[in-house]
Amino acid sequence: MSPGDEGDSAGSREREPGGAPRRRRDLWIGLLIGLLCLVVYNANLRSIPAADTYGARYLPFALWKHHTVTLDPIAPLVAQGRKIARLPGWTNSAYWIVRGRNDHAVSLYPVVTPVVVAPLYLPAVLYLDARGWDPWRLDRVARVMEKLVASLMAAASAALLYLLLRRRTGVATAGLLTLAYAFGTTTWVISSQALWTHGLAELLIVSTLLLLTGPFTPRRAFAVGLLCGLVACNRPPDVVLAAALGCYGLWWAGRRWPLLVAGGAGPVALVLIYNLGVAGHVAGAYALVGKGTFFEHDLLSGLAGLLVSPTRGLFVFSPFLLVLLLGGLQVLRDRRLCGLTVAICIGVALQLLLYAPTDWRQGASWGPRWLTDCLPMLIWMLPPVIDRLSGAGRLAFGVACAVAMGLQAIGAFWYTGVSDAPLYAVVAGPDKMRAAWTPGNAPFVAELRHPPAPAELALTLRGHIDVAAVSGGGDASGSGDVTTGRRIDVEGWALGSGRSPSEVIVLLDGLPAGSTGHLFERPDVVKTLGYTEPSGWRVTIPLDEPISGERTVSVLVRARAGGDLRYLGERRLAMAADRTAPVREHPAAGSGADDDLARVARTAIGVVASRQQAAGYWLTSFTGAARHLHPGREMNTYLNAVMLDLLDPVATAAGLVPNLVRAREFLADQIEADGLVRYHGRPDAATIGTLGCAITPDADDTALTWRVAPGADPERLRLALMTLGRFRTPDGLYRTWLAPRDRYQCIDPGRDPNPADVGIQMHVLMLLAQANPAAARDLCTALGRAIDDDRIWVYYQLAPLLPLLRQADLERVGCPLRLPTSRSRTLVPGQEVWLLAARLLQRFAEPDGPAPPSSEVRDVLHAIAMDDFLSLRSAPPLVYHNDLSASVRRYYWSEELGYALWLRLYFEDQRRGSGGTR
User: Fold this and answer.
1) Which own/partner pairs from 21-29 qualify as long-range (CB within 8 Å, at least 24 positions apart)?
2) How many of the other CB atoms lie within 10 Å of CB of 496?
3) The whole model's pTM is what?
4) What is the pLDDT of residues 430-485, one digit of tens each?
5) What is the number of other CB atoms lying within 10 angstroms of the CB of residue 172?
6) Under a CB-based contact definition with an 8 Å cutoff, are residues 704 and 637 in contact?
7) Please, which residues bridge with residue 493 across strands?
8) How far from chain centre, in Å, is Cα 135?
9) Are strands 511-516 and 891-893 parallel, antiparallel or unpaired?
10) Where are the domains of the chain?
11) Which CATH class is domain 609-913?
């Protein structure tokens, strides 16, 4: 007989003698646990959101201010300046927004969470009504509210979970399990840090369990139905969890089951109305962009990945949950709640089977995010198992809880997302998931390689876009602008809590078009606000083709190095066609995804052009570890020569000829009277002391510069070749530094103070192929003998990208050298995709072999370009490093080289598609 038939026998424990004082004590303990959680969850002073949470962050403001469940009134803010795609396809667009019925902008994700939490936003709405709804202010308030509301829901779920557990076990066990749930699972790093749907799901499931394990009443039956309906509507994969609880609830309600069904029908009906009337599909916005291949992964490997992988495994991040497997049938020991336990086990098992055939890497997030929703159920099943543990078993369980809490603390204070990039470096093939099984890629390992994440929640961004205007046109001779001479000038000011921001990024029609880290003093800002830090910024966007119509310019600001991007605002420009500009014909790219790649190519071209400095050079980033975090900047001749090599074959198609002319002129000017070239350029250059030092001349930069930007004086080349010859080793290789040891300047030598590096041999050989073919043949033979010797892998030991690219160049000059397989790999996270791109270019260059399939090339192009080149910005190409045996290590990166490599691959594919030769 069910509790609904019997009355309220299920709640008999609540009427035991002394029950009222115990309940009051438990309520106070639960409240204290909730307050503790609220404090700890906010101790990192930052949120950990993703694009998935943007809709929930901002939609409550649309509900209060504009009385709508669409994002139309606030779409630019929700898109964070990016373009809202009108067709399926996520690359470089605000994929978290889709076009629903009547072209309304709607959230890709269910609206239950933002609608449920909207009442909590009322104080923020009143504040904005009083202070103004400026975009930067609304964005800041929304970020704060997202964190506060998310942490409040997570804390509430922990408090209620304690009350739930007290119905099964004593104070000590209930307290320990609640703390393990609150701080030893993704409840901390996922649910409490941003408005994921998981936070509300946990709160709803805990509340449902609290009702189902309490005394039956008609109101409780209706509430259980309501909560189960909300669970299912809030997150579609949780339908199986809601069904499990609902099925038990039907038995629990007995003859009163229609009350439970009526409660569940309400939210389901409302969501169906929204799905059909607003999103335009019965299954909601998910169905508008869903892919049929989503469930086509291997089931067994997916189960293993969800449970035990080092990057996403539930039992890795919360090892104390292993006791459920070890306890076996102990979870069924409580006969009174055996039915509920069986229902929960079935629900959790079905959810695992639902997720297993998908891509279990789960996107850019911390740990086993997808399994967060079932955590209250798993914790609820633990007391019967814990009660049967021996003293040693309890100690081991406590240690496992402590380990789990430590791992989650790393996520709360260190996680920035850089650990996610390596997981997606391989786009397809049998090695696609290998990185997710690499222990070194575990986020609690990888994220500790950089300092704690900036605490930016309290940061106040202020600023304004003063100017967004089109200028120029016609002849661009001497202007430095690409092709048309037209440009968009964007100017304004920005401050982050009174300090100069790290970077200002300008987007054109939702795509990155330019950026600057150079700020200058604005006397008007100093006078008005009293802040003396430089706040003014200026970005010029070259227009590489004649365009007309309305264009949107958006500005994002990164207040601190390594911090989040903040939305400053946007301006719309009405542009007339430039009839004087020549029209460049790009190869036809078809439609759909190919058109998207063409738009991305224009973005990459704009970034490469806008980041070239006025003197003609591009800067290089450097770090002290093999991670692209908090980099410094320098000027060197090496990168600029490589940029010329990479872009020269596609410069005309890309409209970058004027930029390459300026780069060549800059490099040619670095050749000194003796014909030698220094890494940081001439010792009297304006960049010495700020972007470099007066370093000793070297063979690498001398060879590179003479080949790509030869000087006008042949006598200087003769002198340079003579000097190179003096630093040749007995086995026919060429050393790095073109001076004796006692004349070294600005050098931190390693074990070999003047090594003969593999990359230097390649560059010297390419120069000799032009200037002294016989010497080139001798060097080719010597390099072939030493190609696998550790002694020549000095600057590319961890960075084989450039040697891979040079294989085709060497073959063209008659030296068909192949790198050993062991030298063509890297363990540096995020670099595999760049090596893959280099191998594709190698296949394009092979005269006798087939070109790579276009589908394979475009998969790589899309992978690199995803989310506004997110992987490129977080893990750009590692071009080289210094001698790792030196006293200080340095690793050199270049986003610009990444864009150039992307463009080279794109145009090679397009040239093949238009019938051009390889």
Assistant:
1) 26/162, 26/163, 26/166, 26/171, 27/163, 29/162, 29/171, 29/175
2) 22
3) 0.71
4) 778 888 999 999 999 999 988 899 888 888 899 999 988 887 654 333 333 334 45
5) 9
6) yes
7) 464, 536
8) 24
9) unpaired
10) 3-447, 461-584, 609-913
11) mainly alpha
